[in-house]
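ok trying this again, last paste got cut off
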Amino acid sequence: MYSLLLTILLLFSCTDRQKETATKKQENLPIAYHDHYDTAVRTIHVFVALCDNKYQGIVPVPPAIGNGQDPDNNLYWGCGYGVRSYFKKSKSWKLIKQYKVDSIIMERLLFKNTKANYYLIADAYNGKYIRQCTAAFLKSCSGQIKDTLRVNGITVGTNGNSKLLAYIGHDGFMDFNLAGSFESADNKTRDAIILACISKKYFQPYLTQTRANPIAWSTGLMSPEAYTLHDALEAYINNEPAANIRNSAAAAYSKYQHCSQKAARNLIVSGW
C-alpha cells in the first residue's frame, strides 16, 4: 500500500510548472576527449539525478527519500527500487567498485555484466545539480564529453565513449531550459534511454542535436525506478531490436506499477 501511495505521489510531482523566465547559462562543462580505451569492452553510462524536494520542481515526496544530498536513502538510488539497490541485487550484474567522486557526483558505481562483456557506470548526481546532470548526459550523447576509467587492468570508455547513455530522474526541462549547443562532436550515433516524466516531448529538441538514437523514453507521467532500466538493458545486451527493448521495459513497468501492458507500452516508446 505504501508503494502504491508513493507512486501516485510521484506522478503528481511531475507537474508541468511554468519555466523560469530567464534561461540560465549552460553549466560549465568543458568539452573533453579521452579516447584511448579498450573498444572490445562495451559500456553503459547511467546518469541519475537524485530526487530532491528542495531543489527540484516536484511535489515533495517523504523527506527521508527526497533528500537529494543523501544517496543512501534516496528514492532513485538507495531505496529498494533505486539504481544502486536494484542492480546490486540483480544476478545479471556484479558490483566491482563503489566510491564518491565529488560534491556533485555523490557516488559512482561500476558493475560488470555476468553474461556479456559489458560494464555499467552509474553516477548519482546531487539533486541540487540536476542541471549539470542533464547537461552531462546530453553532452555525452553528443560526444562532446568523452572519458575513461581503469578497471581490472583495462581501460573502459565512459560518457561519450559509451555505447548507451541513460538518464533517470525528474524531468528538469519542465522547470528550466539549457542554453548552448549539444550538436554532435563526432557524427556518431549513440543509443539513449530517458526515464523521466514526458521525456519524449521535453528532451526531443535537445536529443535531436546529439544524433543519439532514443530506444526508450516516455510520453506521460511515470515513476523512473530501476526495474524499467534493468529489463530494458537485459534485451539491449542480447542485441534485440528496439521494439523488444521497449517491450521489455514496458513489461517491467506494468509488473511493478500494476498497470496494463497496453498502458505501459503507450507510456514507454522507442524512436522519434
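PB: full thing came through this time. The CA atoms of residues 23 and 72 lie 32 Å apart.
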